[in-house]
Each structure stands twice: as C-alpha cells, then as structure tokens.
Amino acid sequence: MRRTLPLILLVGLAFAAGCGAVLAAGDRLELETRAPTLGAAGTPDSAVVARARVIMDDDLADAAVAVFDRVAPRIHLNGRLLRELGPALSTFLLAHERGHLAHHHARRHGFGFTAIPTPSSTLRGYEFVADCYAVRSLQRGRPDAVVAAVRFFQLRRGLVTDAEHPPMGERADSLIACLSATAQ
Ligand SMILES: [Zn+2]
Q1: Nearest Cα to Cα of residue 22 among 125, 176, 138
Q2: From ligand 1's centre to the CA of 112, what distance in Å?
Q3: Backbone φ, ψ for residue 65 (5° rounding)
C-alpha cells in the first residue's frame, strides 16, 4: 500500500503528459489549434489506424506514445502503467493514441532534412482532437471508458501540465462538449 499513492500519481502524470507524446513524421500536417469542435479536424484516416502496430514496452517513459509514420504507424504502450490505470482508462488512452494517428499528428514536420518542431499551441490542439476521436469511437461500445477519462481529468483539474498539454480541466470540459455534440 505504501507504494500506491506515488505510483498512482506517476501514472496520472504519465497519462497526462505522455498520451500526447507523438513522435517523428515526415508528412504534411493538419494544423490544428484548439479544436474541441467536431469536424474541425478533418476526416480521420482509418487506414492508418487499422495498420498501426501496437508494441508493448514496460520500460516506456510514458503510459503510451503514438508514432505517426505513413509506412509504419505504431503505438507503444507501457503495460505496467496501463494496469495501474485500469481497463476503462486504458481503453480510452489507446483510442486517444489512435486519434493522433488518424489525424496524422506529429511533433515535427518537414521533408526529412530539417524537420521543424510543431509549435506547442498546435500540440495542445492535438490533444483535444485525439480526445474527441476517442469519445466518438468509444461512446457506443465502451461508454465506461469515456466516463473514466472525464472523471480522471475532472479530479485533476488543478494539476499543472506542461506547455504541450492543455490544462486537465479544459480537457474534461472538451470531452463533455464532444460527447454532447456526438450524441446529437
Ligand atoms: Zn495525446
């Protein structure tokens, strides 16, 4: 029990900071700013999601990392941290990472010679888009996963996040807005 609290906190931070950690790519980006609104992110690329490899890695620094690569898209998952998060939140996290792939989110863009880092404001917008993708894909079959994510962010509303991630309270509000828009 003594390890539970710090581990849960670590998991929480890893989820908040890590689930947006989308790495390299060499393709054109869909530039998003803040986008809780449906339709603003364009049509999700379901083919990229379908061929994405899921790689388990308990040494991963984050809970999950999506790597958008048109040829070999992949999602790295830290099974140890996901077990701590529980099945509902893990399901949401995986769907969120698929959202990053479906919308071709990348931390750098260019043609492979001098890739330019994606601005932090754009990366924050990616989180809303990936969250909304997860809501749309889970709300019918796994509503418990959406509820778990909303609660996760609501309970951590006051927690400080890094420059690349929106405040958790904003993500909770965005999830609810996306949920109600999708339900109509
Ligand atoms: Zn993310």
Answers
A1: 125
A2: 23
A3: -140, 125
Per residue in 115-126, pLDDT tens? 788 888 899 999
CA–centroid distance, residue 124 to ligand 1 (Å):
9
- Strand-pairing partners, residue 75, are 54, 66
Nearest to 82 by CA among 125, 145, 128: 145
170: helix, strand or coil: helix
69-119, pLDDT tens digit by residue? 889 999 999 999 999 999 999 999 999 999 999 999 987 765 556 678 888
Residue with tokens 């990053």: 100
Locus of tokens 């609810």? 176
**Cα(105) to centroid of ligand 1, in Å?**
9
Cα–Cα–Cα angle for 85, 16, 23, nearest 5°? 110
